[in-house]
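Re: [ENG-882] Designed sequences occasionally contain unexpected residues at chain ends

Forwarding the minimal case from QA. Structure tokens:
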């Protein structure tokens, strides 16, 4: 690397229209700000010209922008089609050369960078081998700074500690994978009376593991995709038998198809399946339960006829636990046909079925807000609201899923604080008739497209899971293991089993490392972040309880989304109906995501309450 960004330098960022992927640029901008490096993002007109790929049309405005802003390094980000991304980058370089803006021509631009999908980065590097750096999307914050030649030690202590925490875990993961010791992990022996039989329950298996120090239950989401429906169902049954025989997986989560969720039992005709296991009969569900012995089994709920589908899953799968998304898996995200009001009522009707079965329930909620740009406070409060609503509807056991690395640019210490705050709030609901089971998981887009790095990342995020609940001697109750191949290819049984071994080995190895070190300097930072998040969350919750009738019922949940208590700036559907949520602004801040005003100033929970209660939209 020939050039290093330094304090006072200016990095120009160009996101050619119509690419809408801005979160990475926002996260990088925050890191640069803390490092003392200025950044300028190209305006709409320049971005539009960059997106047209015409060097001659781009040249004059590009030169004026670079010289006017005193830009010394330039980065182009294109996360869509790799071929187009390569062409746009080539046009940018042509415009720079025509304007004699590169350093080799005596111009101000000392370095060039490209951010895009791995195939585009490969093409750019092949065509322009002298490029200073490439961002393929799987870099940690510290790795991103290193590409720019910036030492993370220049960051404020809280951020540098956060990056150190992330890099330490990743180094731990790399070492563990390199050793290969995880391959020696064997299946546990379990022999309680109902093990693997009808009537076996998640609560029984968790208790068995806790009593014997066996660690968390391991869950994995599995599902092959084949164009032939019957062949796909048969292959899934075969995979289920293979996983059951290996004995490493406790909970098989069926990756059922969109049509299974939307049109179960109907004649699908020529309708596209949309990926996933295309189960369409109750008999097929029963066959899968038999094939999966001795694993517990669970599946997606229905996005239509939600309550009746819950009964079918109970009868045919003896389902380990049910899951619902309340505001989601409907017209709000395009995952189902129902309007939000109708969807909420259907989900509450399904809660009645679940409560009558005495089975656990998982609110599949907070990360769906994070996917749409929500701030950390929205994530936490939405998770609490869902848990409280479930308790008030009669649920007695709750599986609290916490998706880490979402968005993937979240720093580890911010992630821990967010997880701890949500867990603390939901644990306050516990009592003789309500028990909470913690189930963390890795983020969907966190894992690298490079195999060894992805495996190290799986070990690193598994280690972080053991830092969430420091009071527990056994770690989380359940871990939803996202297979290391998530960023590369579909996970077959071999990949799933290897991922389970990595997860268990990481928990054991990380605990040994913590005992050896005797504590971490970053713990106080996480406690302070958690305290602030809890304080803000309580303000928001109290305001909703005060101003929204039926707060924890379907009409209350609709109203709080409608009024703008949650931020959803990246919402793509129903933006007019939920304009208050969609018009809010969020931005990366201190490793997390915060609600901000037009000038980038943080908006407090108290200010958010005033905005929601007055009906004002944040422009």
């Amino acid at each position: 690397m020939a050039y290093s960004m330094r304090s006072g330098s200016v990095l120009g960022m160009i996101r050619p229209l119509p690419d809408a992927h801005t979160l990475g640029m926002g996260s990088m901008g925050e890191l640069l700000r803390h490092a003392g490096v200025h950044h300028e993002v190209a305006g709409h007109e320049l971005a539009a010209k960059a997106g047209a790929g015409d060097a001659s049309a781009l040249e004059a405005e590009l030169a004026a922008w670079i010289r006017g802003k005193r830009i010394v390094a330039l980065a182009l980000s294109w996360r869509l089609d790799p071929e187009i991304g390569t062409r746009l980058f080539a046009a940018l370089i042509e415009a720079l050369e025509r304007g004699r803006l590169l350093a080799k021509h005596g111009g101000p631009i000392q370095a060039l960078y490209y951010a895009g999908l791995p195939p585009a980065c490969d093409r750019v590097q092949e065509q322009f081998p002298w490029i200073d750096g490439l961002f393929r999307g799987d870099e940690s914050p510290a790795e991103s700074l290193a590409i720019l030649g910036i030492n993370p030690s220049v960051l404020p202590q809280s951020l540098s500690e956060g990056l150190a925490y992330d890099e330490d875990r990743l180094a731990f993961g790399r070492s563990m994978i390199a050793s290969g010791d995880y391959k020696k992990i064997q299946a546990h022996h379990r022999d309680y009376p109902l093990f693997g039989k009808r009537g076996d329950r998640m609560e029984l298996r968790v208790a068995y593991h806790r009593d014997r120090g066996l660690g968390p239950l391991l869950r994995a989401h599995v599902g092959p995709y084949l164009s032939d429906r019957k062949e796909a169902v048969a292959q899934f049954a075969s995979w289920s038998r293979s996983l059951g025989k290996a004995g490493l997986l406790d909970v098989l989560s069926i990756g059922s198809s969109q049509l299974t969720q939307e049109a179960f039992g109907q004649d699908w005709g020529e309708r596209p399946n949309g990926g996933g296991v295309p189960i369409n009969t109750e008999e097929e569900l029963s066959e899968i339960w038999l094939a999966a012995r001795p694993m517990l089994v669970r599946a997606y709920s229905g996005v239509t006829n939600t309550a009746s589908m819950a009964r079918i899953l109970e009868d045919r799968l003896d389902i380990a636990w049910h899951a619902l998304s309340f505001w989601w898996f409907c017209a709000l995200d395009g995952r189902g046909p129902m309007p939000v009001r109708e969807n909420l009522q259907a989900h509450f009707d399904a809660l009645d079925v679940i409560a009558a079965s005495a089975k656990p329930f998982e609110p599949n909620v907070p990360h769906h807000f994070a996917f749409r740009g929500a701030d950390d406070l929205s994530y936490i409060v939405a998770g609490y609201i869902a848990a409280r609503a479930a308790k008030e509807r009669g649920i007695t056991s709750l599986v609290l899923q916490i998706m880490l690395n979402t968005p993937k640019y979240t720093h580890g210490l911010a992630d821990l604080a967010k997880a701890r705050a949500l867990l603390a709030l939901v644990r306050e609901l516990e009592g003789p008739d309500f028990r909470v089971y913690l189930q963390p998981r890795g983020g969907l887009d966190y894992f690298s497209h490079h195999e060894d790095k992805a495996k190290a990342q799986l070990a690193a995020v598994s280690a972080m899971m053991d830092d969430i609940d420091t009071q527990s001697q056994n770690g989380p109750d359940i871990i939803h293991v996202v297979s290391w191949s998530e960023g590369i290819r579909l996970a077959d049984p071999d990949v799933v089993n290897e991922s389970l071994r990595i997860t268990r080995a990481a928990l054991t190895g990380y605990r040994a490392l913590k005992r050896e070190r005797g504590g971490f300097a970053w713990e106080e930072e996480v406690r302070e972040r958690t305290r602030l998040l809890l304080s803000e969350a309580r303000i928001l919750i109290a305001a909703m309880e005060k101003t929204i009738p039926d707060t924890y019922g379907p009409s209350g949940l609709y109203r709080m989304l409608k009024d703008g208590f949650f931020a959803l700036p990246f919402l793509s559907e129903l933006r007019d109906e939920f304009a208050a949520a969609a018009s809010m602004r969020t931005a990366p801040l201190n490793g997390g995501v915060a609600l901000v005003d037009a000038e980038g100033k943080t908006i407090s929970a108290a200010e958010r309450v005033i905005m929601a209660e007055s009906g004002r939209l944040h422009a």
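QA comment: On inspection the terminal residues look reasonable. The chain has three domains: 10-155, 168-525, 543-614. Proposing we downgrade this to a documentation issue.
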